[in-house]
Structures are given as C-alpha cells and as structure tokens.
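Final report, section 2: Outcomes. Of the targets proposed, Coatomer subunit zeta is the one most frequently requested by collaborating groups, and we therefore present its record in full.
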Amino acid sequence: MESCPTVKSILLLDSEGKRVAVKYYTDDWPTLSAKLVLEKSVFTKTQKTNARNEAEIIMFDGYIVVYKFIQDLHFFVVGGDDENELILAAVLQGFFDAVGLLLRIILETEGSVIAGKVATNGLDSAGSLTEQTISQALATAREHLARSLLK
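The predicted structure is given below as tokens.
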C-alpha cells in the first residue's frame, strides 16, 4: 500500500544561511544541533547555484532537496529519496507564493496603506494601532508572519 507523500522539512534561510523560519515534520534530525547542521550543509551546497528563476533539485545525504532563491531568501523543501520531485516542487512553489503574499506589506511605502493592512489582519491582544509604537507594530507584524509560516 502506497503512502501519502511526506515532506520532511521546510526551511527558509537568509543570505548567510541563518534561520528565518523552519519547520521539521519528522524526527530525522532529532536534536537542534542536527537541524542546524542540516541547514548549514544544505545552504553551503546550494549557495553557488542559480536557482532564481526556477526551482532546482538535488540529492543530499539521502534526501531530495528542492530549492529556490528570491532576493536574499533561500527556500528549501526536503523530502525522502523516494518522494516525487514534482510534488515537492509544488510544495515549494506554494510556500514561496505564500511568503511572497505575506511579505507584500514590506514593499509598501505608504504609511496609511500599511496601517490599513495590519489593522484588517487583526492585532489579537496587541492593542490598537494608535497605542503601538512603530517598533511594536513591526514586532507584531513579524510575529504574525512567523506564526502563519509555521502553521
């Protein structure tokens, strides 16, 4: 009986290979140090490639890694060596598109538009926009981004 495709992990790293957001779905890397080694190794192996226009696929330590870069963000989806690369690529594209939609607010320069977008998404218990400083509003937006990425 065939099983459903499994994503082992999804990684979003910055241009230096440091974590922006990561999610591990299996215990293939049981400790934090093992996870950090994977992230550093995958980043180092792929950083010199040109995965800017289309996703690239590599075999890495018995895993299939599908990845794509945009600006200074590096997107990775890791699956087992028996997974379908097209399905992993579809997961990567969905993740890539979702982050792009979530980060559109950062590309906006009009203050009232940014405030309106943040207000319509709700601030949970963080208070109203008028009661927040700019740094608090950015921290709240960052928290919302991290939560939505890790769901």
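The domain at 7-116+127-150 is CATH 3.30.450.60 (Beta-Lactamase).
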